[in-house]
Amino acid sequence: MNVHIYKGQVQKSIIFEQMISSWKHALGIVYYTQDEPYPNHVGGVYMMPRDLMKEDEFVDEAIPYLMEETDAQMVIIYTNHTEEENLYLIEKLRAFKDIRTVILMCKED
Fold first, then answer.
1. What's the whole-model pTM score?
2. Is the pLDDT of residue 92 over 90?
3. pLDDT tens per residue, range 49-78
4. Are 74 and 24 in contact (CB under 8 A)?
5. What architecture (CATH level 2) is domain 2-107?
6. CB neighbours of 42 closer than 8 A, spacing ≥ 6?
7. What angle is formed at CA 32 by the lines to CA 4 and CA 38, rounded to 5 degrees?
8. Where are the alpha helices (DSSP H) in 52-98?
9. How does pLDDT run across 31-52, given as a tens digit for each residue?
10. Cα–Cα distance between 3 and 104 in angstroms, integer?
11. Sign of CA dihedral 53, 21, 72, 108
């Protein structure tokens, strides 16, 4: 699968919201921790707390379930972690075969 990494410090949630509202077949997921800022005002996205769902559960269970519930061709995942902090998630996403493209939004290092 193609995993595109988008890194940004500010306006990331606005870009996330614009992508979700512009693309009909995109599945939006906010994979967050409570102690970091995250977009909690974007409608039509799934909110997945990191403290309740580890990366392997997220990729192996949550994403396939959500894909069954929608006709998504692309997944856009907003995180409030750096690319380095998301390395395990990135590896799991690259190995996942059921979707073609993922945009993973990370905080700048």
1. 0.90
2. no
3. 999 998 889 888 888 888 787 778 889 999
4. no
5. 3-Layer(aba) Sandwich (3.40)
6. 13, 16, 17, 20, 28, 30
7. 90
8. 55-57, 63-69, 87-95
9. 988 888 788 778 889 999 999 9
10. 7
11. negative
- Sequence-separated (6 or more) residues with CB below 8 Å from residue 107: 7, 8, 9, 12, 36, 79, 80, 81, 82
Residue-range domain boundaries for the chain: 2-107
- What pLDDT shows up at residue 109? 84
Per-residue CA distances from 59 to 10, 44, 67, 109 (Å): 26, 20, 11, 23
Left (φ > 0), alpha (ψ -120 to 50) or beta: where does 22 sit? alpha
In angstroms, the CA 40 to CA 56 distance is 23
